[in-house]
Each structure stands twice: as structure tokens, then as C-alpha cells.
Amino acid sequence: MKLKLFDVGNDEAPFVEKWANYNNIEVDYVRNSLTRENISEVFGYDGICVSHNGPFDNSLFKDLKNMGIKQIAQRSAGFDMYDLEQATKNNIKITNVPSYSPNSIAEYAIMGALYFVRKVPTVQHYVAKQDFRWQPPIMARPIKGLTVAVIGTGRIGYITAELFYHMGCNVIGYDIQPNPKAEKFITYKDTVEEAVKDADIVTVHTPATTDNIMMFNDKLFSHFKDSAIFINCARGILVNTKALINALDSRKLSGAVIDTYENEATYFRKDFRDKQIEDDLLKSLMERDDVLLSPHIAFYTNESVKNLVECSLNSTKAIIQKGNSEFVVNK
Ligand code: NAD
After folding, report:
1. Which domains are delineated in the chain?
2. Greatest C-alpha distance within the chain
3. pTM greater than the 0.85 cutoff
4. Residues 174, 190: Cα–Cα separation, whole Å
5. Does ligand 1 come within 6 angstroms of the Cβ of 255?
6. Catalytic position from the list 12, 75, 235, 262
7. What are the tens digits of pLDDT across the range 218-255?
């Protein structure tokens, strides 16, 4: 068996090599993405594994089929870049990695909450001015006893709620399908408005669906308790960024942890050091002390990268050897 990986970064390469050695399978990898220009590179391989980040050229399925390829293993949870019907028509099975380290994202949400609860940006501001006095602006409060609303209590939201609960927080939840297992530490509310209204911290962990695009808008922020902390490590499109900035300006929110941003595809994962950023919304998020902005890295730990590589390569191997994998998304 011979496998070809595309989109492989320096962070993934050691895990790819380890998997290849352990499984005694020949694996080659390149940094480039699979496109019409380089599709001939797939010739001679039995399976492919990619980490496609933008639109995929779905006309490539036919060429892959003609080369004897039966699968594409996508190294992410999201697979919306593929036309699944076209893939199925060409006998190509697409696999994803639905969960690779929910703890990593949950821990990031906790870190973001503590960052604002313990007034880290204000402390840094005073230290930068060489003002080391103990004084009211940097006096914080413990997270223990605060009320946290977790919106979406699936794989990641469940662990986030559990971690906040173990720190002594009062955890409120909202989910269209409440998780009975979580009821020992989450008090569920019937509406998102009820869930957020008494919360000191609101953290969102739902997928983006046609029903909840920009659910965090001016109206929903108006239901928040004054000076709440808001965390979005889920999907950028869940939040109307203009409304978020209004809520920060009016001190409805005292801080926001923004790991996913509505227009992130143009910027996140790219090097803009020598380029102009045209996006005024992004620029204003970057400039604010009351926003902790990050480029969709809540998941980004060695555990996640390892699991993404191993799970996708295991799926590739399973499809080639047995014709199927539990992670096929176009069944
Ligand atoms: P999941 O499917 O396990 O859980 C999602 C939960 O949200 C489910 O319980 C579902 O019932 C609930 N839900 C769906 N629509 C809802 C709505 N409109 N209102 C309330 N609840 C709703 O998903 P997961 O694996 O926990 O992922 C959660 C989010 O985290 C996703 O948006 C995912 O894309 C994102 N994510 C982010 C990163 C990162 O690095 N920032 C990494 C991985 C996943």
C-alpha cells in the first residue's frame, strides 16, 4: 500500500512518519493542496489524505476514480467543501475526523474565561507602565461561584460545562437536545435568552446551522447580564461581529474570547505579516484590549494534531483494506 498526503505542515510531519513506521506502510507527503494542476502526483498511490481548507474542485473526483482512488480522508471535522453526491457517484468515500480532542477546546474556553475574570489585560497594562501597586482596577474575583451559560452541550460543550462545574461555577445550559448525562452539573433552560440572562460568562459550542447563523446579534446581547464575558470557540458565523463590538463598546460585555470569526477564511492560517489587512471588523477586534483574538486555534494541541493524522490515516487504510471506515460521511 502506498499513500499520498497533501497539505502537510511541519507540525503534522512527525506524526505522519510515526504512523507510517508503525504500520509499515509507504507514505509520501507534500505541503501543497490537491488541485487540478498537481493531480497527476496521485498516480501510483492507493489512497489520499488531505486537509483542505477552502472550496474543493469537485471535478477532481472523476480523475481520482480513473486513477483507482477510492477515498479522500479529510483531516478535520468539517467536510462542507466536498460535494458528497458527486463523490458517491464516482465511488469515492469521504472520511472526516469528527472529534480529535474536545478537551483542548474546552480548556481554551476556560483559559479565556480566566483571562478576563482575573483581569489579565489590565494587569499587563499596568505592568507595562512599571506600575506594580496593588490597586482596585487589578483586583479580580474568583471564578468559583460565578454563573456560566454553556450554549450547546455536545462533545465540547459537555466537557467545558464539567470543567467550569469542577471550578465551583453555577452552570446553566441551553441545547436544542439537552444531554441527560449532563444534568448532574448543568441546569438546562428552555431558551437561549433565559440561559444567558444571569450568566457572568457565556460560552458557545454549537455547530453553525441554517437555523442559528448570527444567533448572537444585538437582540441576544441585549439579554446578557451587564459586563458579561463572551466566548466563541465554535463557529465565526454564529456571531454578528458588529453587534459584538457594540456590546463591548456599551460595556454590556466586559470581554470577548474570539477564536472563530465570521470572515476568517481570508486570514486565518495565513501569513499576513507583510500584507495589508482590508477587513475593518477584524482590525478592530485585533486592536481591542477587551478582545482576546486567536486564529481558530482552540483545538491546536499536540494531541489534536496527532489524532487528526492518525484517525484520517487509519480511515484511509481501512477503506483500502476492508472497503469501509466508521468515519465515511457519504454513506
Ligand atoms: P457536537 O455536535 O458534539 O455538539 C453540538 C451541540 O450543539 C449538540 O448537543 C447540539 O444538539 C447542539 N446544538 C445544535 N444546534 C443548536 C442550537 N441552535 N442551539 C443550541 N444548541 C444547539 O459538536 P462539538 O464537536 O461539540 O463541536 C462544537 C463546536 O465546536 C462546533 O461549532 C465545531 O465546529 C467547533 N469546533 C471548534 C474548534 C476550534 O478549534 N475552535 C475545533 C473543533 C470544533
Report:
1. 2-100+302-322 (3.40.50.720), 102-293 (3.40.50.720)
2. 71
3. yes
4. 7
5. no
6. 235
7. 999 999 999 999 999 999 999 999 999 999 999 999 99
